[in-house]
Design goal:
The structure holds 2 protein chains of 2 kinds.
Chain A (H helix, E strand, L loop, with lengths): L1 H11 L6 H7 L18 H15 L4 H9 L11 H4 L8 E8 L5 H11 L5 H18 L7 E7 L5 E7 L8 H9 L3 E7 L6 H12 L3 E7 L8 H12 L7 E2 L8 H11 L13 E10 L3 E10 L1 E3 L3 E4 L5 E3 L2 E5 L3 E3 L2 E3 L3 E5 L13 E4 L18 E7 L5 H13 L5 E7 L3 E8 L2 H13 L5 E3 L6 E5 L4 E4 L11 E16 L3 H10 L3 E7 L4 E9 H4 L3 H8 L5 E12 L1 E8 L2 E2 L5 E4 L3 H15 L7 E7 L2 E8 L14 H17 L1 E4 L2 E4 L1 H13 L1
Parallel strand pairs in A: 1-3, 1-4, 4-5, 5-6
Antiparallel strand pairs in A: 2-3, 7-8, 7-16, 8-15, 9-14, 10-11, 10-16, 12-13, 12-15, 17-19, 17-20, 18-19, 21-22, 21-23, 23-25, 23-26, 24-25, 27-28, 27-29, 27-30, 30-31, 32-33
Chain B lengths: L21 H8 L22 E6 L1 E2 L11 E2 L5 H20 L9 E8 L7 H15 L1 E11 L6 H10 L3 E7 L3 H6 L6 H14 L3 E8 L6 H13 L4 E6 L7 H5 L10 H17 L3 E4 L2 E3 L6 H7 L5 E3 L4 E4 L2 E4 L4 H12 L13 H12 L6 E2 H8 L1 H16 L3 E5 L2 E4 L3 H4 L1 H12 L10
Parallel strand pairs in B: 1-4, 1-11, 2-3, 4-5, 5-6, 6-7, 7-8
Antiparallel strand pairs in B: 8-10, 9-10, 12-13, 14-16, 15-16
Helix pairs in contact in B: 1-2, 1-3, 2-3, 2-11, 3-4, 7-9, 12-16, 13-14, 14-16
Classes of the chains: A alpha+beta, B alpha/beta.
GO biological process, one term (chain B): porphyrin-containing compound biosynthetic process
Organism (chain B): Apatococcus lobatus
GO molecular function, one term (chain B): coproporphyrinogen oxidase activity
Chain lengths: ~700, ~450
């Protein structure tokens, strides 16, 4: 169930099986809000982050969610409630809307599965079947199952029948805007903490989000059956760090099925019911997720807060001002079930022939055209890309294919932006904006794999501001467009505030890392005697490359991080140009700090010397600031490239090698007289960190 | 003076009708299988059938440290064991030959025994193999029959026995004229063997023979290389091959050395060795007719030219690759696999049944990469006839800048070839450029 959801994300992310891991590990996906920054809720950054999640998660879609309903054999009646029973209406006071906050691997998916089984919403075997179906579908048709909510029927100890709506927060709780919208659709949440690990940075941030939304928080100490479990320590930690009362924390093991009944009872007892805003209210519903389906258009997932929605209603989205007529309305139980009407307090989905997710953005408010609400629900923001790069087809003839493919991806990815770019070196392509490097990699990979466009991707960059001597300010998304030093007054770069939570043993290495990335130390506090929080202000450009990978490697995986953008600052930045055979290669230009120019230049020229194949003449490779060369390498001429023997058995082998060599050549770009392989442009990604 | 069978009759007065070895009668009396008719029936043969055969003889005294061929080292096995391995392998080869179709009406023009060390094979077994080939495919009277022979593995007697069976060309693996290099390569022969072998060749006077050298060896200096080339010329072989050492994966050399790094010569030095070989040998009257091959007039290796002109050829034995009916078929590298292969053939199951013939595109690539190895070069008119105008245009476009830089020349308007030595030195670079250009020709523009 939610497990299959979780897994589906993995596949969707086209990073083949590494998807989830990468996603989980990527810094961009970890941005979140902090208590001292709660005022910033809904800033541009947070919206970027969440949109990224949404778009990434949605990847390809979801018609599978509707298909599997047919694909899975109906389980025996006594073990699982009939569909009509599962979706039967109950008055608002018997509805409970909740979500689960947990760090990756702390057991969210397993717990969700257990809740579904315990409430006879699904059965064990069915879950397995659906999971497998999902995998097969994924493999065979390249589509993905999405499940982001589940409606359960639970008969509590008080004898009452309750409708429980579990609203999934993004597969990883790293997308704070999306998480915040999902939480805004709930009245309570389960805080699941691994009893052997303790609170992590993302958990912390999401708990603050939950508090901000006035949710009832039920602490659950999971994995108490493991030998390393220290429920008392973790209970204290939650109390000390989060200030939550843990006297009623539930001891559980989702895997072993311990404490599930207690959790269900706590949901019913402790989480308040939604306000009974059905009658005499202007209709409002909060969109907490959306995804594109090629047959139905965008599927919108929402929580009704006021009034009611009916099939056939003409609805309006209050922020985008778009109007649509509801074609279908339904709930997920956990398979999609169509219903005629959803009222305040309920959670469901709708389709209304909406063409792109950008027309039904997360956080927007649905209202009725004929009787619109006077005020939209709070908290809506739009995604803005924070990392840009150029994407050019290797083969100029594929420009139109690339345009079409980007357009299709954008249908389901409102955070992706692109506009045409012309480069003297690379020809026609697009300047594309992303939420972060992972987002960029995913889009690149999907373009190449699903749309068969062979790409050259230029060095990614954050958005700089260049103040000109004349007094104007220019926004720079492309290093080659940075005005020359002569007309510049100053350059500003985006900064972020980074919070790291780490066992105290790793404080030293992590401070070194932050300092090496030009971080300004802000604060350090002991959370408990063993764990520390470190706060730095860092240039965003230093974070979006591989800060998170480094953090994990220097802390043996124990540290976690959160960051959010805090505005622009002047820095001593320069444009580092790369010249190959004395010609400037625009796509390799970078904006770097002056102090790092030599290091980066050295690393970059060295790397280029390795990846550019030898050619028939000697090639100088230089890194320069203006006319001043800061680093240089020479690629010596090719002396020989010949296979001595070629007889009967060698012919096939030699042909294979030559074909490979030829294939490599097709991926080259000519710069002046020099052939530069595609890899040269992507290898640049690693340079900054290697140099640091 | 002659004993046993002389299966071919290309030497005056050499026709004999001595008794056939038993294995040959197997081929004769068993009606041929797999749908090919009896070799005796002229009606079954086609002019497109191979006129060449390669036989792989994998046995060596020991395996050289750079070698990645399918080789079985005999080591210090007792003589009887060695003999029985030789004869059972010979039987296997004969069986494979006997079950192979494709007889050209004019018979085989070239036969090549490669290895391994074919000169370890007792002459009477080699004779049986030739008889088997003659029986199955016929051997033309003027056929070139070559075998590889390593110093220290043959004597005046064995040489003349091989020649009596029909061998008329030897390829002698001298490799180096310095004791230290022979040792470092793990060769089983020493400098004394080298001198003896050259003496035997000069004495035996086969119709042709080749002296083979390796350049680019670890610690090989320019002086050593010049010395080897001069010694080679002094030995007056009609043919010289100079192979630039390739470090092959999974060989001891691959563990010991990295291409381009000391003690291997730097690329620039290895290139200079190549240039030196080309200039010294050409001065001495040799024609540099292929990347690694030099010959006095009339002494090009006919068999190897079959490979480079994309002509079909039979092949037998472990790891051997044949090219027949447009299919390149490589036999299993290990003995056991090869045994099963022959077994399958004997049971009328074609072990290569699933292989498809090369596509037109592949044939074009073969033609390009193989002909560009030779000084005869690529005939653009032939390419155009077989593969269409677009193929010619693509080739011409791809080589334009190499022509400009002097790596490719047009000796005639319809022929392109690599220049010697500079063009040959970057053969792969040029050919892969042509591959890249040819790979972009849409299918419908290719001739059918």
């Amino acid at each position: 169930m939610l497990q299959s959801l979780h897994l589906s994300h993995t596949h969707q992310f086209s990073r083949v099986l590494q998807g989830t891991a990468r996603q989980a590990r990527h810094p961009i996906l970890h941005s979140s809000l902090f208590p001292w920054a709660r005022a910033l809720a809904g800033t541009a950054l947070s919206s970027r982050t969440r949109q990224g999640c949404s778009s990434l998660r949605q990847g390809r879609f979801q018609r599978a969610a509707f298909r599997t309903a047919v694909a899975v054999a109906a389980p025996p009646r006594e073990l699982v409630l009939p569909v009509e029973e599962k979706v039967k209406k109950v008055p608002p006071k018997y509805i409970r809307n909740f979500s689960i906050i947990a760090h990756i691997d702390h057991g969210k998916s397993t717990l969700a599965d257990q809740l579904l089984i315990q409430t006879k919403t699904v059965m064990d075997r069915e879950m397995q079947a659906q999971f497998l179906d999902g995998m097969d579908l994924e493999r065979e048709r390249g589509i993905t199952i999405k499940l982001n909510q589940a409606r359960m029927k639970y008969t509590a100890n008080d004898g009452q029948v309750y409708a429980l709506n579990l609203i999934d927060t993004p597969g990883h709780v790293d997308f704070n805007y999306e998480v915040s919208r999902s939480l805004a659709a709930c009245e309570g949440c389960l805080l699941v903490v691994d009893a052997a690990q303790g609170v992590e940075a993302q958990t912390l941030a999401n708990v603050y989000l939950a508090m901000e939304n006035d949710l009832e928080i039920i602490p659950v100490l999971n994995k108490i059956d493991l030998p390393g479990a220290e429920p008392e320590r973790v209970r204290r930690e939650i109390e000390e760090v989060l200030g939550l009362d843990c006297s009623r924390a539930i001891l559980a093991s989702a895997k072993a099925g311990i404490g599930i009944e207690d959790i269900l009872e706590a949901i019913v007892e402790r989480i308040p019911p939604p306000a009974d805003n059905i009658a005499d209210h202007e209709t409002r519903a909060l969109i907490f997720d959306s995804a594109y389906d090629p047959y139905r258009g965008v599927i919108v997932y929402f929580r009704v807060t006021d009034g009611e929605l009916n099939v056939g209603d003409r609805v309006m989205l209050m922020n985008t001002r778009k109007e649509h007529i509801i074609d279908e309305l339904g709930v997920l139980a956990p398979k999609p079930v169509n219903v005629d009407r959803l009222f305040a307090g309920e959670v469901g989905w709708l389709s209304a022939s909406i063409k792109a997710v950008a027309d039904a953005r997360v956080g927007d408010t649905i209202t009725l055209k004929k009787n619109p609400a006077s005020q939209a629900l709070p908290g809506y923001t739009e995604a803005k890309p924070m990392v840009f790069c150029g994407m050019f087809p290797s083969d100029g003839d594929q420009f139109e294919d690339l345009r079409e493919a980007l357009g299709k991806l954008q249908l389901n990815d409102s955070a992706l932006s692109f506009e045409p770019e012309v480069s003297s070196a690379m020809g026609f392509g697009f300047r594309c904006g992303f939420l972060g490097l992972l987002h960029m990699e995913i889009v690149q990979e999907r373009l190449e794999r699903e749309y068969d466009v062979d790409l050259i991707v230029t060095s990614p960059t954050v958005v700089y501001r260049c103040n000109l001597a004349k007094g104007e300010t220019m926004v720079v998304q492309n290093p080659t467009l940075l005005p020359d030093a002569g007309v510049r007054e100053s350059i500003e770069e985006p900064y972020c505030r980074m919070e790291i939570i780490t066992p105290k043993d790793f404080v030293g290495p992590l401070m070194e890392l932050s300092q090496a990335r030009r971080g300004d130390f802000v604060d350090m506090q002991f959370l408990t005697e063993a764990r520390t929080t470190l706060i730095y202000n860092l240039p965003l450009a230093e974070v979006v490359t591989d800060f998170f990978d480094e953090l994990k490697s220097r802390s043996r995986g124990y540290a976690s991080m959160e960051y959010h953008q805090i505005g622009y600052r002047k820095s001593d930045l320069v444009r580092l140009d790369i010249k190959i055979n004395n010609e400037t290669v625009d796509p390799l230009a970078q904006i770097v700090h002056r102090d790092a120019a030599f290091r980066v230049g050295k690393a970059l020229t060295g790397r280029l010397r390795e990846v550019i194949p030898r050619q028939q003449f000697k090639i100088p490779i230089q890194a320069a600031i203006g006319v001043k060369v800061v680093a240089s390498e020479n690629l010596s001429a090719m002396r020989k490239d010949v296979t001595a023997k070629c007889y009967g058995g060698d012919i096939s082998r030699k042909k294979k090698l030559l074909k490979k060599q030829a294939a490599g050549k097709k991926r080259m770009k000519m710069f002046g007289k020099v052939e530069v392989p595609k890899e040269a442009f992507t290898s640049i990604l690693k340079i900054n960190s290697d140099a640091a | 003076m002659r004993t046993g069978l002389r299966p071919v009759s290309f030497l005056p007065g050499s026709v004999t009708t001595a008794k056939l070895p038993p294995v040959c009668s197997l081929a004769v009396h068993n009606p041929l299988k797999q749908g090919c008719e009896s070799p005796q029936k002229a009606s079954s043969v086609s002019p497109a059938e191979p006129r060449s055969a390669y036989l792989h003889l994998p046995f060596c005294k020991r395996k050289c440290l750079y070698c990645d061929f399918a080789v079985l080292a005999l080591g210090s096995a007792p003589q009887e064991t060695i003999q029985s391995r030789f004869s059972s392998y010979t039987q296997l080869l004969l069986e494979e030959i006997g079950h192979t179709c494709g007889r050209h009406p004019a018979g085989l023009e070239t036969v090549f025994f490669g290895g391994g060390t074919p000169s370890l094979l007792p002459p009477q077994l080699l004779e049986q193999l030739l008889a088997g080939l003659d029986n199955q495919f016929g051997i033309a009277p003027d056929a070139e029959i070559s075998m590889e022979a390593d110093p220290g593995t043959f004597t005046a007697e064995s040489l003349s026995a091989y020649m009596r069976s029909g061998v008329n060309r030897f390829s002698v693996g001298i490799q180096a004229f310095q004791q230290s290099h022979l040792e470092r390569c793990g060769r089983s022969h020493d400098l004394h063997d080298v001198q003896a072998a050259l003496g035997l060749m000069q004495q035996a006077q086969p119709a042709s023979w080749s002296l083979d050298l390796i350049s680019g060896l670890p610690h090989l200096s320019m002086e050593d290389w010049r010395e080897s080339l001069e010694a080679a010329i002094a030995a007056q072989p009609p043919h010289i091959s100079t192979y630039d050492l390739q470090i092959e994966d999974k060989t001891p050399f691959a563990r010991l050395y990295r291409p381009g790094d000391a003690p291997l010569p730097a690329d620039s030095e290895a290139a200079d060795m190549y240039r030196l070989a080309s200039s010294l040998l050409c001065e001495a009257g040799y024609e540099h007719y292929e990347v690694s091959s030099f010959a006095l007039p009339g002494h090009r290796c006919r068999h190897n030219q079959v490979y480079w002109t994309s002509a079909p050829f039979h092949a037998f034995g472990m790891s051997a690759a044949s090219y027949q009916q447009g299919r390149r078929v490589t036999r299993p590298r290990a003995m056991q696999g090869y045994q099963s292969w022959v077994q399958a053939l004997a049971e009328e199951r074609d072990p290569a049944a699933s292989l498809e013939a090369d596509s037109l595109q592949d044939q074009l690539l073969d033609m390009i990469m193989l002909s560009m190895r030779t000084s005869d070069g690529l005939n653009l008119q032939q390419a155009e006839q077989r593969f269409g105008r677009a193929a010619r245009t693509a080739v011409e476009r791809a080589v334009a800048r190499h022509v400009e830089h002097g790596y490719v020349s047009f000796p005639e308007p319809d022929i392109i070839r690599l220049t010697d030595p500079e063009g040959f030195l970057i053969e792969n670079d040029v050919v892969s450029d042509i591959f890249a250009a040819v790979g972009q020709i849409p299918e419908h523009l290719q001739a059918s």
